[in-house]
Specification:
alpha+beta; about 35% strand; about 20% helix; about 150 residues; 5-stranded mixed sheet; TATA-Binding Protein; single chain
Length: about 150
């Protein structure tokens, strides 16, 4: 099953890792360097295949990594305008009782990061290709809000 999924995602650049039956596909989709700082956005999809129950469990997330020095952005004309100082917070609420895949969070992050980063990456295509591969092989596809373990 995993070979079929890998084949369906072969058009996307990324790395595959396996640890104790948990497969992870990750791809750096955006990177920004400014003065003494660096930020990058990585897409990560985790997949666990239960061969006995014939279930493919799938989760995805965007990971923002940053390093370096920033004097804070937005004060006009600086090298690091638009780069976060690392302070702030965001709250989010959602209802999972309606079923289906939770798209809001990853879409929100794409929109949020899109203000700082320029990228062209369709995460919905990854999800649908994994789902199509699972269903064509007779497996049940389940999307999980929390990372697959």
């Amino acid at each position: 099953m995993i070979e079929q999924i890998k084949k369906s995602l072969s058009v996307h650049s990324g790395d595959w890792k396996e640890k104790k039956g948990l497969w992870e596909f990750s791809s750096v989709i955006a990177e920004r360097r400014a003065f003494l700082s660096k930020k990058k956005i990585t897409y990560s999809a985790k997949i666990r295949i239960d061969e006995i129950e014939k279930v493919v469990a799938f989760s995805e997330m965007l990971i923002e990594n940053g390093s370096g020095f920033s004097v804070g952005g937005g004060f006009g004309g600086g090298f690091d305008d638009g780069i976060s100082t690392g302070f702030g917070f965001k709250t989010e609420s959602f209802n999972t009782l309606n079923g289906g895949a939770r798209q809001g969070s990853i879409e929100e992050k794409f929109n949020l990061f899109g203000k700082t980063f320029q990228y062209n990456f369709d995460y919905k295509e990854i999800r649908s290709k994994v789902e199509e591969s699972a269903k064509s092989a007779g497996y049940t596809f389940t999307y999980q809000i929390f990372p697959v373990r």
